[in-house]
């Protein structure tokens, strides 16, 4: 047989040093006994084959050495070989090592002198058989899975020709190999020799426990179980693990499991590095590449990251798959265990690691790897200025934001900004990063926002959205100062929109206080706004002053019709327009705009804006009397606000509205607790603090403490007036203060406040606001003209939403029509039925209690043929529809579906023989005496 001659080298190479000594005899006791029996009987028996297979490090080599040492001690000849990956492609390397000791034999054995003769079919085989017949001989082969093909065939031939020869062949190696049919199968297929095929499995639990107890002392079950988990039954790993733990002097108890885990990471790392060194330098390069991207790329692709130009992939895959610390993934890829990757890479220089990550990231990107995986590689690499890297990092940052991983998103965006070369895109990245930082590090976000606004040459859209973002996140002071400076150097539409945002921070200009002295002069908003943003903020300004209702509606609607810029809507102008519409009773328009805004926002902008949007939508639902929907929105808003770094400013608003919801729903105890909940000190400086003061005044009135109510309400009014927030539609603090004064026997003050509120309400002109003011006048007036006043209030409130104001006017209207001289009991009965319908969802609410009390006192009935045949639910729906309510409003009030409303009204039309909604409306008007 021919073949190339291997380069000169030691024919038996010592194995690499390991961290600890060999495991004791109590481990692998069955296998040790088998090997000992083979050695002890070799002198009197024929040929014997012993194969020891299993995962790398399971003790195969240790057992081979045990057999060799025992044989030598018994006076037997021992020929040894240890094969390495580098030798696996060189012919006869194992045979050369085995036959080297026979070179010292006398010259009469020329076939074996100077190693095997390559011209022989099986060089050196005949000489070895003659030597074995003279003296029992053992061949001990370690790492047999790396046997070259020629050496494997040589061993097969030796076994076939060894009949009657006192010869033992003991081979140990991994149980997976690329050789076909495999070294175990190839040797075991030879007929004749007695064969022992031992497969080394992970140590069983009892052997693990015995080893732990032997080295560390008596251990509890938790400690032993963790040792078994870390080592996975690997004898060498287990022995090293417990030896290192014992050296620390700790008891093997459950409370020491964390220390055991830390040691386990070190041990597994050492074992992996030791195994890699044994595989050779080329394999080491491959393993380092696997540590970077093995779970992303196939081994053949990973190889391109190394300097290895050619290798037997199947052999290397087989070896690595059985190596401690390397696992085979379900898709067949090889990956270094995550906790060991740093250990594998720490032997590289920093520059080499960085370069490896760069090449791995580009390769993974081309292979279509997941953005997150490629981004992880890029984070460990230096910037390359590649467009694909920037896009990958941004996409992964967007995903991180969606998953709530804002800290990770900040790291990714900061890294992306290092890659980006285009100034405009770099500024946009800065804006995205600022949005994330405002969530996790508000101060850092403020600084970035301030730089984006102030830096000359910043893209106009970026500066505008940065200002809007800063205001949305609660940094009004920083943004106001920055905007004031930016207004001096900008022009055109950009300046118009920046001016709108400046006034959005403080629409009436009263909160700047002493700071206004240090700000550049900022012009007011023009009476004829130049941009949609200006129209929105101007609408809110006028609404706060309580002036020009129709102009407010027009400005707000114009603003919302043109709120879509190329980068989405500006949050603060849309909120300003929606707040203005709420005060004008245009709740449907406001709700539509809020829902559209919430749907248009994404990522961090949505996270920052959602609490304010939901809080306003919750207030809107309160004004409609939809308390359940309001509670859901407000609860979500509070949860979102508390997750942000700045919740103090918004909490008074949320607590105030939720307290009112509790009162209106009949949850008196909950209302008292919520109103008394301590809030951060910074909350008292918030523009929303008056809302909480108002709610506390309401709670005090409900518990019968008018003096405390008056104090809270007066402080509420004082704070609102200090900001020039004059509109009674914000909160009717004057009317409730008047009620408190009236109860305390202060009629003059009550009358003054009532008249003031009524005058302001009429100046504003919204139906709900005017009706509430009129009701207040009725409740605080003497007996004269009460019926006239309540009828006027009822006429006004018909155009308003069916919220708390409507219900209270309706209740007082029914009561006075029923009890006052000149009242109409039929009208009272119909109004009482409508009040019952409005309050059916909250039976404990004050107005529901009032409705039941009035019903008990009522003596008149509604006399309409067929009316009594209607169910209570049908009567409720019929009265509301007859009063002009839409199916959607009725469904929301009664907390049923619109389809259920349609079915109820269909039954009403059939039972009353009506031809639709118009006739139902006429019937209800007739019932009321119109």
Report on this structure.
It is elongated and about 140 Å long. It has a five-stranded parallel beta sheet, with helices on both faces. Strands 6-7 form a two-stranded antiparallel ribbon. The chain is built from 44 helices and seven strands. Helix 15 packs antiparallel against helix 16, helix 28 runs antiparallel to helix 29 and helix 34 packs antiparallel against helix 35. The protein is 61% helix and 4% strand. With 930 residues, it is mainly alpha-helical.
Task: Output the keywords.
mainly alpha; single chain; elongated; 44 helices; disordered N terminus; five-stranded parallel β-sheet
In terms of topology, how is this protein built?
Blueprint: H1 29-40, E1 48-54, H2 60-73, E2 77-82, H3 93-99, H4 125-134, E3 137-142, H5 149-160, E4 167-174, H6 183-188, E5 194-200, H7 205-216, H8 221-231, H9 235-247, H10 257-279, H11 281-293, H12 299-302, H13 313-321, E6 326-328, E7 334-336, H14 341-345, H15 350-366, H16 371-379, H17 387-402, H18 406-419, H19 423-440, H20 442-454, H21 460-472, H22 476-486, H23 492-505, H24 532-545, H25 549-561, H26 571-583, H27 587-600, H28 603-624, H29 627-643, H30 651-664, H31 668-675, H32 689-702, H33 706-722, H34 733-743, H35 747-764, H36 767-780, H37 786-797, H38 804-819, H39 825-838, H40 846-857, H41 872-882, H42 887-894, H43 898-912, H44 917-927
Parallel strand pairs: 1-4, 1-5, 2-3, 3-4
Antiparallel strand pairs: 6-7
């Amino acid at each position: 047989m021919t073949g190339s001659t291997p380069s000169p080298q030691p024919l038996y190479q010592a194995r690499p040093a390991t961290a600890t000594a060999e495991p004791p005899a109590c481990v692998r006791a069955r296998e040790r006994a088998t090997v000992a029996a083979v050695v002890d009987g070799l002198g009197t028996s024929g040929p014997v084959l012993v194969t020891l297979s299993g995962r790398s490090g399971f003790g195969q080599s240790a057992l081979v050495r045990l057999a060799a040492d025992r044989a030598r001690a018994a006076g037997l000849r021992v020929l040894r070989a240890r094969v390495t990956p580098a030798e696996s492609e060189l012919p006869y390397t194992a045979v050369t090592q085995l036959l080297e000791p026979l070179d010292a034999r006398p010259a009469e054995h020329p076939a074996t002198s100077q190693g095997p003769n390559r011209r022989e079919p099986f060089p050196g085989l005949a000489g070895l058989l003659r030597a074995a017949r003279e003296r029992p001989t053992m061949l001990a082969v370690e790492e047999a899975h790396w046997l070259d093909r020629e050496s494997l065939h040589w061993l097969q031939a030796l076994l076939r020709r060894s009949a009657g020869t006192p010869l033992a062949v003991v081979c140990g190696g991994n149980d997976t190999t690329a050789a076909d049919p495999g070294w175990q199968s190839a040797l075991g297929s030879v007929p004749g020799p007695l064969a022992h095929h031992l497969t080394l499995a992970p140590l069983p639990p009892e052997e693990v426990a015995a080893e732990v107890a032997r080295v560390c002392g008596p251990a509890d079950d938790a400690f032993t179980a963790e040792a078994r988990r870390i080592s996975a039954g690997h004898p060498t790993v287990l022995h090293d693990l417990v030896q290192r733990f014992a050296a620390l002097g700790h008891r093997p108890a459950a409370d020491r499991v964390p220390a055991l885990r830390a040691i386990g990471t070190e041990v597994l790392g050492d074992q992996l590095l030791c195994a890699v060194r044994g595989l050779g330098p080329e394999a080491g390069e491959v393993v380092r590449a696997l540590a970077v991207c093995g779970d992303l790329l196939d081994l053949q692709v990973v190889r391109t990251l190394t300097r290895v130009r050619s290798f037997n992939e199947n052999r290397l895959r087989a070896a690595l798959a059985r190596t401690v610390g390397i696992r085979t993934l379900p898709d067949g890829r090889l990956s270094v265990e995550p906790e060991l990757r740093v250990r594998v890479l720490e032997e590289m220089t920093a520059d080499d690691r960085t370069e490896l990550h760069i090449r791995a990231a580009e390769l993974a990107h081309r292979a279509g790897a997941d953005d997150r995986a490629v981004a992880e590689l890029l984070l460990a690499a230096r910037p390359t200025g590649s467009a694909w890297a920037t896009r990958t990092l941004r996409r992964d940052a967007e995903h991180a934001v969606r998953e709530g991983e804002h800290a990770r998103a900040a790291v990714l965006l900061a890294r992306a900004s290092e890659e980006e070369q285009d100034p405009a895109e770099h500024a946009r990245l800065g804006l995205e990063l600022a949005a994330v930082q405002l969530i996790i590090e508000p101060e850092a976000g403020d600084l970035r926002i301030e730089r984006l606004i102030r830096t000359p040459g910043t893209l106009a859209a970026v500066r505008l959205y940065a200002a809007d973002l800063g205001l949305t996140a609660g940094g009004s002071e920083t943004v106001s100062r920055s905007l004031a400076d930016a207004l001096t150097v900008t022009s055109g539409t950009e300046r118009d929109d920046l001016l709108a945002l400046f006034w959005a921070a403080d629409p009436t200009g009263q909160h700047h206080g002493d700071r206004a002295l240090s700000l550049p002069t900022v012009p007011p908003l023009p009476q004829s706004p130049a941009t949609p943003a200006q129209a929105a903020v101007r609408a809110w300004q006028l609404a706060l002053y309580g002036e020009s209702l129709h102009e407010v509606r027009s400005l707000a609607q114009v603003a919302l019709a043109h709120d879509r810029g190329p980068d989405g809507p500006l949050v603060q102008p849309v909120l300003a327009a929606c707040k203005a519409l709420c005060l004008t009773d245009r709740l449907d328009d406001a709700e539509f705009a809020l829902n559209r805004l919430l749907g248009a926002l994404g990522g961090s902008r949505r996270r920052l804006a959602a609490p304010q949007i939901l809080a306003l939508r919750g207030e809107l639902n309160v004004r409609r009397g939809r308390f359940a929907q309001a509670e859901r929105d407000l609860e979500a808003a509070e949860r979102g606000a508390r997750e942000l770094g700045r919740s103090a400013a918004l909490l008074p608003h949320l607590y105030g509205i939720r307290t009112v919801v509790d009162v209106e729903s009949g949850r008196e105890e909950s209302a008292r607790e919520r109103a008394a909940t301590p809030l951060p000190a910074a909350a008292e400086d918030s523009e929303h603090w008056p809302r909480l003061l108002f709610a506390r005044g309401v709670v005090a009135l409900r518990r019968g403490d008018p003096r405390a109510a008056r104090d809270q309400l007066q402080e509420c009014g004082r704070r609102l007036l200090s900001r020039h927030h004059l509109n009674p539609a914000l909160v009717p603090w004057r009317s409730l203060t008047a009620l408190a004064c009236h109860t305390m026997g202060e009629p003059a003050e009550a009358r003054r406040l009532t008249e003031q509120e009524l005058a302001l309400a009429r100046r504003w002109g919204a139906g709900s606001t005017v009706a509430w003011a009129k009701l207040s006048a009725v409740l605080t007036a003497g007996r004269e003209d009460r019926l006239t006043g309540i009828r006027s209030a009822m006429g006004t409130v018909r155009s308003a939403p069916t919220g708390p104001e409507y219900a209270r006017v309706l209740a007082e209207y029914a009561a006075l029509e029923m009890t006052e001289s000149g009242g109409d009991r039929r009208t009272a009965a119909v109004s009482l039925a409508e009040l019952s319908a409005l309050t059916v969802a909250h039976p404990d609410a004050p107005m529901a209690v009032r409705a039941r009390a009035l019903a008990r006192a009522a003596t008149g009935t509604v006399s309409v043929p067929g009316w009594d045949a209607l169910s209570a639910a049908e009567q409720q729906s019929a009265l509301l529809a007859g009063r002009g309510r839409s199916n959607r409003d009725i469904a929301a009030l009664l907390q049923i579906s619109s389809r259920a409303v349609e079915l109820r009204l269909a039954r009403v039309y059939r039972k009353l023989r009506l031809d639709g909604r118009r006739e139902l409306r006429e019937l209800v008007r007739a019932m009321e005496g119109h």
